[in-house]
Design goal:
This protein is α+β, with helices and mostly antiparallel strands. The protein is built from 13 helices and 33 strands.
Length: 693
């Protein structure tokens, strides 16, 4: 790279086009790259017959210059031009491609259509949330200076079993006035909350999509409210951070705010996982906008039916053709870019089974894209997490092709544990399996990596508090007659639907949330929960708040004090998991000869569960730093008290109770002198071996 820069110093223009001095560029530098003396613009298209670089002044819809690539500025399918004397602070750019137009073959070239660079590092236009940026039906790119100083930034590089993942939406997390931050709804706002992350005890945040997206896509009015595409799952540009999430970025230095956030998180030993969307784009179907891949190589970037229509395995109108070699290259280069230039620690792949579909939509046994990501050397240290299902019905939880690299969102943990915790019949056996690492799904995990990311709540579905406040979803305000969102929530309202003043019901809801938190933190696998769940945040029964840019989806930080008991319990359980590594991973065998992992019923070691079993216990035993580390958790989902018998431990000292959600004092230190313990209705307990004290 240094040699190329030095070489460019000696380069002289060879041509003049549209008043600009130019020459053939660097064909292996895709995108717009700044060098001393000018900018190198390189783009490729398999089917295009010609390409024109269009330069715009800021916020102008018509270009002030059109630079058509001469034939000798093309090698293979790559167009490259070095433009001398450009002041990047003064311009925006797009491309026009000429080529065949044939709907049935999926070829949509239009030489008058402005096309966004798929490798754009920044997208022009939208700098204010919710403000329509232009009436023009296209996006433009900006040329970005990548001169951020990372200093001695170092990632914590946690193992998966040591993570506690906290999923959040950048805007919703701090946009409410109750957040108390100076820069609400931005990367800076998240950075202001780092002391809170430290207080809570989490060590990893998972950012919902921060690729550039157009929240004004499909904007509509319903019930007097403006509904937007808030979540960000309709990507506009894969290489560009969302401009409206940055309050302090300078023009042509986009990404600085996000980089500063990541650097500061790393300084505080917190990792960053990005939720990435490579299953579809914001261009939608035949009726959707036309601004990027459609006008570049539509029949390559998207899965098309034999008559040129869009397959829709994403539920959002189109499906990215991930296993075409060109798309494979784009995705791999994108992830490398975020890893190198933003120091991201991991990626969560939305609807990841689409990444394993062939060009005709059929599932592949060894998808080349997934395999290439698993073995890519640049991605060698980052976490790769799959949402192992899609909207086309392909469900691969426990079967996602991983090459021992991908972890999975464990949807079976969510569903089975939700049903068990609310007291459904026939769920005890499944709960015992889920608590101890889902050995039926991940048999290779015994004593090794953690493939299971355990969760009971996430952005998609009920919040944890709503899980015990509503029997039914209440998505009426979304404008689809409550037909959107999942119907099978496995929720229970504890006796009254929605908001209540009944003190007994409120108390029960708090206990149920604590039971869920205890189950999550006492399970093998990587725990994850959604922002606000740690203090009982509610979405008022909306389980699909993707379009709600209001108090429905915004985190209400007043709930932290209102539900202080829930918050303190979450803090305790997160810290407890950290202090007892035996929970997350097998340790050397204890000196007491106990099994590393064991499951129990209302009697110790009685793990043959019946249809009406409502009690499940799990014990982890091992040796940590020369001391026995033995912990036991039990969950009584029955609506009556029940006496259980604890595992008998050799020696004089027995058990100490540290958590009992059925007690007035939930967190305690109570030494037991008996192996009998009466559990309250619908309660959870956590005990630890008292012999090392």
């Amino acid at each position: 790279m240094v040699d190329q820069k030095n070489k460019l110093h000696k380069w002289e223009p060879t041509d003049e086009i549209a008043g600009f001095k130019v020459r053939p560029g660097l064909f292996d530098r895709i995108g717009a790259n700044i060098f001393s003396g000018g900018v190198n613009f390189t783009v490729y298209s398999i089917n295009a017959t010609a390409c024109t670089l269009c330069l715009f002044h800021h916020r102008e819809d018509e270009p002030f210059a059109r630079l058509e690539y001469p034939e000798n500025y093309r090698i293979g399918n790559v167009f490259s031009m070095f433009v001398f004397g450009l002041k990047v602070e003064d311009i925006e750019y797009a491309y026009c491609f000429d080529g065949p137009y044939d709907l049935k073959k999926g070829l949509l070239f239009n030489k008058e259509q402005f096309i966004l660079d798929p490798y754009a590092r920044a997208v022009a236009g939208q700098s204010v949330w919710g403000q329509k940026f232009s009436d023009a039906k296209f996006f433009k790119a900006r040329v970005v200076r990548d001169d951020f100083d990372w200093g001695n930034d170092t990632s914590p590089h946690y193992n998966m079993h040591d993570l506690v993942i906290y999923e959040l939406h950048v805007r919703n997390f701090t946009i409410d006035r109750s957040s108390g931050v100076k820069n609400p709804g931005t990367f800076e706002g998240v950075k202001e909350k780092i002391p809170y992350f430290k207080e809570l005890g989490i060590n990893c945040i998972e950012l919902m999509p921060v690729f550039e997206f157009n929240e004004m896509l499909n904007m509509r009015e319903y019930g007097g409210k403006r509904l937007l595409e808030c979540w960000g799952y309709n990507s506009t540009a894969f290489f560009a951070p969302n401009t409206v999430y940055a309050s302090g970025d300078k023009y042509n230095h986009e990404g600085t705010s996000l980089k500063e956030l990541i650097r500061e998180l790393h300084k505080n030993d917190i990792e960053v996982i990005m939720d990435v969307v490579f299953n579809h784009t914001g261009e939608g179907n035949e009726e959707g906008p036309f601004f990027s891949f459609k006008g570049l190589d539509n029949n390559i970037y998207y899965m098309l039916t034999p008559d040129g229509k869009y397959y829709n395995f994403s539920g959002c109108g189109n499906t990215l053709n991930c296993n075409h070699p060109i798309v494979q290259h784009l995705v791999r280069e994108c992830l490398r870019y975020w890893t190198i230039n933003y120091r991201v620690d991991g990626f969560r792949f939305d609807l990841a089974t689409i990444l394993g579909r062939n060009e005709d939509g059929s599932p592949m046994s060894k998808p080349p894209l997934i395999q290439s990501l698993a073995f890519d050397p640049v991605l060698g240290d980052v976490k790769l997490i799959a949402e192992a299902w899609d909207a086309g019905g392909l469900y691969q939880v426990g079967k996602f092709p991983s090459w021992n690299r991908f972890s999975e969102w464990n949807g079976m943990f969510r569903d089975d544990m939700r049903r068990f915790l609310k007291g459904d019949d026939g769920m005890a056996q499944a709960a015992a399996i889920r608590l101890t690492g889902s050995i039926d799904l991940y048999p290779e995990d015994v004593g090794s990596r953690n493939a299971s990311v355990n969760f009971l709540s996430c952005h998609d579905g009920f919040t944890l508090y709503d899980l015990y406040s509503y029997n039914q979803k209440h998505n009426e305000e979304n404008g689809w007659n409550n037909t959107d969102g999942a119907d099978n929530n496995y929720s229970w309202n504890c006796g009254e639907e929605g908001v209540t003043e009944d003190a007994d019901i409120i108390s029960l809801r708090h206990r149920m949330v604590m039971n869920a938190a205890a189950a999550l933190m006492m399970s093998r696998g990587t725990p994850m929960f959604y922002a606000g769940d740690e203090f009982g945040n509610s979405q008022f029964g909306n389980n699909n708040a993707y379009c709600q840019d209001n108090e429905v989806a915004w985190i209400n930080w007043k709930d932290k004090e209102k539900n202080r008991d829930i918050f303190e319990f979450f803090k305790f359980m997160i810290d407890y998991r950290r202090r007892h590594p035996v929970i997350g991973k097998n340790q050397p065998e204890s000196s007491l000869g106990l099994p590393l992992v064991s499951t129990h019923g209302y009697n110790a070691y009685m793990n043959e569960y019946t249809w009406d079993s409502k009690q499940v216990g799990v014990m982890y035993a091992g040796m940590v730093n020369g001391k026995n580390d033995i912990v036991y958790a039990c969950f009584n989902t029955y609506w009556e008290p029940i006496e259980i018998t604890l595992p008998d431990i050799p020696g004089k000292d027995k058990w100490r109770v540290v958590v009992d959600t059925g007690s007035k004092q939930v967190i305690m230190k109570k030494k037991l002198d008996s192996l009998k313990y009466v559990m309250s209705p619908r309660s959870a307990i956590v005990l630890e071996y008292a012999g090392n004290k």
